[in-house]
Amino acid sequence: MKNNMQPFVKWAGGKRQLVTEIKKRMPKDFNKYYEPFVGGGALFIDLKHDKSIINDFSKELVDAYLCIRDFPRELMEALSNHEAKHELNPKDYYYRIRALDREEGWYEKDLVTRTARFIYLNKSCFNGLYRVNKKGYFNVPFNSKLRVKTYDEDNILALSVYLKNHVNIYNGDFSAAVKDASKGDFVFFDPPYDLLKSDTFDSYNPDAFGVAGQRRLADLVMELTERGCYVMITNHNTPLINELYKDLNIDLVNVKRMINSDSKNRNGQEVIIYNYDLEETDETNF
Ligand SMILES: C[S@@+](CC[C@H](N)C(=O)[O-])C[C@H]1O[C@@H](n2cnc3c(N)ncnc32)[C@H](O)[C@@H]1O
Q: By three-state DSSP, how is residue 253 classified?
């Protein structure tokens, strides 16, 4: 298996810069790996654990994992086609492809066609953001790059083999994804962030997850703790998060915040929370 596989999309809340801090605090040994809010999968792809379960609420994103698993060559061909057409007339081409989800029947198109659009837009839109308007149409502007590189062949092929042989992929709510998690498994939750005060003014942030989602997740964490699972959660360092997890270990880490219009707020504190004593996480415990 290729050692340095990389995420294939840029995703808001991506954990690339926290991977080292997270790995320092992971259990030393565990059975299955669960990531119910996988997003771009920075940690999941870095770990390459041999029995992994991933999930996300976003159907387009989960479909992209399935497409890479099942149709890597067809996907790369479709992506190369987008790259070539993009170069001929970048801005027009971007907006033409962006508008496809407004057409009737778009979501009945085949997996390769839909995933190629999804990845092409992710690589040529502003900041790699994924955002849809109230009608569910993708509405991020063009990043103005004349050329776009949408994939790395070795990476896609390595991801495909890994996903095929070692990973179960689900599209649903986080709670359903961990229903079979049991003693000795490791569950990493990277949920939508609890909002900071400064985010209230950020119109990019509809926060459908909300306080109710954070509470529902905290209840599930307690249930998984009772089952004997190792659980880790990352989030912003807010009063709500500190209250919900006050009985667990909470470590503060500094991060550069990427998507924030106010430069004073670009350095923030996040928390890494875990329900175990690191010293006691070798295989003798399960
Ligand atoms: C902070 S992002 C995860 C980032 C990811 N760890 C990475 O490195 O790219 C949170 C993810 O949770 C997903 N999500 C939101 N609500 C959800 C729910 N109820 N169940 C499962 N996933 C959900 C979003 O689609 C998003 O991909």
A: strand
Taking the centre of ligand 1 as the mean of its atom positions, its distance from the CA of residue 186, in whole angstroms, is: 17
Q: What is the separation, in whole angstroms, between the first and last Cα of the chain?
A: 28
Here the tokens at position 46 are: 């870095």
> Do residue 32 and residue 76 come from a single domain?
no
Burial level of 286, CB count in 10 A (0-12/13-18/19+)? middle
What is the number of domains present in the chain?
A: 2
Residue 216 domain-assigned (yes or no): yes
Regarding whether 183 and 81 lie in a shared domain, the answer is: no
Q: Same structural domain for residues 133 and 260?
A: no
Q: In this predicted structure, what is the pLDDT of residue 24?
A: 95
Atom of ligand 1 nearest to the CA of 13: 1
Interval between CA 236 and ligand 1 midpoint (Å): 14
Q: What is the CATH number of the domain that holds 115?
A: 1.10.1020.10
pLDDT digits (tens, 9 = 90+) for 3-32: 689 999 999 877 878 999 999 999 999 999
DSSP-derived 3-state class of residue 207: coil
Does position 258 have pLDDT exceeding 70, yes or no?
no
Domain enclosing residue 208, as ranges: 16-57+172-285
Tell me the per-residue pLDDT of 159-218, one tens digit each, with 9 for 90 and over. 999 999 999 999 999 999 999 999 999 999 999 999 887 665 554 445 689 999 999 999
Token digits for 19?
Answer: 């991977």
Q: Which of 267, 196, 188 is nearest to 238 (CA)?
A: 196
Any residues with Cβ below 6 Å from ligand 1, and which? Answer: 11, 13-15, 36-37, 39-42, 55-58, 173-174, 190-192, 209
**Is residue 1 one of the residues assigned to a domain?**
no
Question: 79 and 52, same structural domain?
Answer: no
Query: Is residue 203 a contact partner of residue 245, using CB atoms and an 8 Å limit?
Result: no
Domain contains 235: yes
State which amino acid sits at residue 148.
Answer: V
